[in-house]
Prior knowledge:
170 residues, alpha+beta, five-stranded antiparallel beta sheet, two-stranded antiparallel ribbon, 4 helices, 22% strand
Amino acid sequence: xxxxxxxxxxxxxxxxxxxxxxxxxxxxxxxxxxxxxxxxxxxxxxxxxxxxxxxxxxxxxxxxxxxxxxxxxxxxxxxxxxxxxxxxxxxxxxxxxxxxxxxxxxxxxxxxxxxxxxxxxxxxxxxxxxxxxxxxxxxxxxxxxxxxxxxxxxxxxxxxxxxxxxxxxx
Length: 170
């Protein structure tokens, strides 16, 4: 059996090849090549995508840092609220004894710890003093509670300073 007498093994619709005189039609192969991407095209497109992704990945890191800073500020505010709430519950006569130069420890969620330990992230220090004479002329009826809340690992050393005036009427 001669080559040109062989039955067609592939139809033009199945594989894109056709038998013309015993050889593969180059016209069909050319059509098949154009329907796919070349290695150069794929490499260039991956380079473009990678070039576009680098700034996006940088933005994700910046966004995560901003999120963490925001969470820390929120927790610091919550700690100030908790300590101030405790000071308001204490009888005025015991205020200096319970809040003068006291240190309170909190974890990353603002939950108070009994002492400094591995989960301690925030430290709140308090002090009791006499308020300035501009606020009240009678220094015996009011006390100034000053609080500082600081993050252990804060490289910028940002501290929340807060003051609360407590008087005998409370």
